[in-house]
Amino acid sequence: MTLIDFLPIVPEILVLVMASVILLLTAANKCPTAGYVPSLLTLLGAAVLTITTGGLGTDALVRDLVIVDPMGDVLKLVTYLAAMASFVYGRAYLREFGLLRGEYFALALFAVLGMMVMISSASLLTLYLGLELLSLSLYTLVAMQRDSAQASEAAMKYFILGALASGLLLYGMSLLYGATGTLELSGIAEALHGQTGGTMLLTFALVFIVAGIGFKLGVAPFHMWVPDIYQGAPTAVTLFLASAPKLAAFAIVMRMLVLGLPELLHDWQSMLAVMAVASLAIGNLAAIMQTNIKRMLAYSTISHMGFLLLGVLAASIAGFAASMFYVVSYVIMTLAGFGLIVHLSRKDAEADTLDAFRGLNRDHPWLAAMMAVVMLSMAGLPPFLGFYAKFFVLQALVGGGWIALAVLAVMFSLIGAFYYLRIVKLMYFDTPSEGTGRIAPAGDAIGLLSLNGLAVLGLGLLPQGLLVLCVTVVQASI
Amino acid sequence: MEFTSVVFYFLSAILLLAGLRVVTVRHPVHAALFLVLAFFTAAGLWVLLEAEFLAITLVLVYVGAVMVLFLFVVMMLDINIETMRADFRKYLPLAGLISGLMALEMYIVLGGQNFGLKMPTPKSADYSNTKALGRVLYTEYAYAFELAAVILLVAIVAAIALTLRRRSGLKWRDPATQVVVKKADRLRMVNLKPQKPGAPVEDEE
After folding, report:
1. What is the number of other CB atoms lying within 10 angstroms of the CB of residue B106?
2. Could B158 and A139 be called an inter-chain contact, meaning their C-beta atoms sit closer than 8 Å?
């Protein structure tokens, strides 16, 4: 092993070193914001390194543990962006709630490192280690608001269910290792090559792996943790854990199922189909009944993840690219949506109920307009980004002959449109509730938020570039 | 009987006895000490299986660190032994059932014939599995090894971030001010009048 072998993991090394430096820096420096600028610079540096080392090809390097491919690079870049945006949006909120400590940034960077490892994992070993690194950091971030019973409860639930999911995944991986004798994903695919249908052992392994990934993605029937954690966690942390980790989850679906287990395609296709339909149904129906906007968006996340799986199970280049497009646009929309909630939240008036948004247009027309854009986009109305995300997935589904699934997905999206439109209605046609519940912007990130909201509109008007990018990188990576 | 078999049975007997004593002795400190003995004996068995590295780590990590920590906790906590043991009989049937099931499961799994396992051929005397493990761990799997280390770092940061907080109303000392304290801060010289022995003691101020 020479120094050149480490080139593909230089971004990871940078993030690790800087996270440790920030840890030391903020321990020595009493200023709570000391970690803020270095964190942003770290992510920027990682982005530059990812771009410059990106052209190194698709060979598995660092002894078959790491894979560097265009898809991974693009996902990593979006991850950095999402992390940076959640730092910028969350800073004022965190300061107000006394959470703006050095550990916050260090742990968030460790979570980013975990995501990077997951995204570029070429072996079950790195995949699992990355996942644990991410999960452990997220558990801690959720628990950091020690005085809030709700946050502690959410963290406890997240930890226990997350540990269970990790156990399921690990058990599936061990069975898979037992069946194939290798941890490398491409090696597993080779070992299974020619086996049609798969044995009992492989089916068991697949069930555990799909269940474990389902937990991490938050799709039904493994979705129970999502609403509680989204609601209980401090909103700035919700913003972080609702956005970037979904990219990593998408990456492990691609690595695990598409790269590692293509021979079991028919088995996992049917599992994903069931999970996708269940998520669409539960996510959209349960969201209607919510009065807490964080909880409502959590259910909406469940349905979005269902949509994501629909693209994957179409099992074509178009399907994978549509899924990737979907997850990227989901992250952009979620950042804007939760970013606005964080922006509007203050210590004495958290903007986490639907009532808080009543008549927002009267006081803050620009914020209301952006929230409306995000909601309409999530509902899947043209000309916003969400429409094309759904459209490409449906197109891939129909192309793969899954007409019934496509029809179901459209129906549930129609049902889901109700609760997104309800927020628009609350903001524009209701009178604001007077008194203590009034919300006022406390955040200081209005510039970036506006840019984010405009991106939802702009990418919706011109989706071609992003789509072409997704298709190209997926094509180059598979 | 070969010498290794004698050693095996000797160690196994001690291990079983120690394990039994862990759950039957009255005093938790004694139980912990018996657990130390059990770990140590198990390490001996692993040496017999040519897994020296695992044996050494077992002694270093479990006996050296975990059990010492455990003993500290047991000694610091004032555990009422009688109340803890009161339900021993009540839980005995269930515990017995679970132990029996575990033994059965181990028999099935370790039977070997179910998984097509063969007896491994013994390695030559100069073979070091510590070296072999070290070689893979620090070359081929260095990346994964470092990641595991990062996970441990995150665990430490998490534990400290979640538990170290200054709550008001807590009585704590600042070690720095304790160190720089001067004699004059603490000591006050009082001039006491000499008294006759047997004289009535005056009331203190």
Report:
1. 10
2. yes
- Preceding omega of A382 cis (within 30 degrees of 0): no
Residue A121 DSSP label: B
Establish if A1 belongs to a structural domain: no
Residue B28: the pLDDT is 82
Q: Do A126 and B162 touch (CB under 8 A)?
A: no
Whole-number Å distance between alpha carbons of A104 and A34 = 11
Instruction: Output the six-digit token pair for B92.
Output: 């005995």
**How far, in Å, CA of A86 to CA of A244, rounded?**
9
If one compares B53 and A56, the residue with the highest pLDDT of the two is: B53
Please give the average pLDDT of every successive group of 10 residues along chain A, which has 478 residues: 71 93 83 82 92 66 78 94 93 85 90 95 93 95 89 93 93 90 89 73 90 91 92 92 94 92 88 94 92 93 94 92 95 94 80 83 88 93 91 93 93 92 91 62 78 90 91 87
Nearest-neighbour CA in chain B from A457: distance (Å): 38
Of A352, A422, A464, the closest CA to residue A93 belongs to A352
The tokens for A370 are 């952006």
B143 touches chain A (CB under 8 A): yes
Q: Decide if A379 is inside a domain.
A: yes
Q: How far does chain A reach from its first CA to its final CA, in angstroms?
A: 27
> Which of A106, A123, A126 has the CB atom closest to B157's CB atom?
A106
Of A1, A107, A130, the CB nearest to B157: A107
- Nearest CA distance, A330 vs chain B (angstrom): 28
Q: Which of B81, B97, B96 is nearest to B25 (CA)?
A: B81
- Which of chain B's residues have a Cβ under 8 Å away from the Cβ of A146? 162, 165
Q: pLDDT digit string (tens) for B35-47?
A: 999 999 999 999 9
Tally C-beta pairs within 8 A across A and B: 63
**Higher per-residue confidence, A98 vs B145:** B145
Nearest to A117 among B147, B153, B165 (CB): B147
What does the pLDDT read at residue A61?
A: 55
Q: Do B154 and A16 touch (CB under 8 A)?
A: no
Q: Which value does ipTM take for this structure?
A: 0.90
- Work out how many domains chain A is built from and give that number: 1
pLDDT of residue B202: 57
In contact, A67 and A56? CB cutoff 8 Å: no
What number of residues does chain A have?
478
Tokens found for residue A240:
């972080």
How confident is the model at residue A27, as a pLDDT? 80
Looking at the domain assignment, is residue A351 inside a domain?
yes
Give the residue from chain A lying closest to B141, CA to CA. Answer: A63
C-alpha dist (Å) from residue A263 to A193, A195, A198, A309, A320? 6, 7, 8, 18, 17
Cis peptide before B120 (omega within 30 of 0): no
Residue A2 included in any domain: no
Closest residue in A to B150 (Cα–Cα): A133
B82 pLDDT above the threshold of 70: no
Q: Domain range for residue A116?
A: 8-477
Model confidence, pTM: 0.85
Q: Please state the separation of Cα B158 from the chain's center in Å.
A: 22
DSSP letters spanning A404-463: HHHHHHHHHHHHHHHHHHHHHHHHHHSPPPPSTT------S-HHHHHHHHHHHHHHHH--
Does residue B122 or residue A114 have the better pLDDT? A114
In DSSP terms, A121 is beta-bridged to A66
Query: What is the four-CA torsion angle of A425, A434, A445, A90, rounded to 10 degrees?
Result: -100
Mean pLDDT of the region B68-77: 83
Residue A436 has a pLDDT of 47
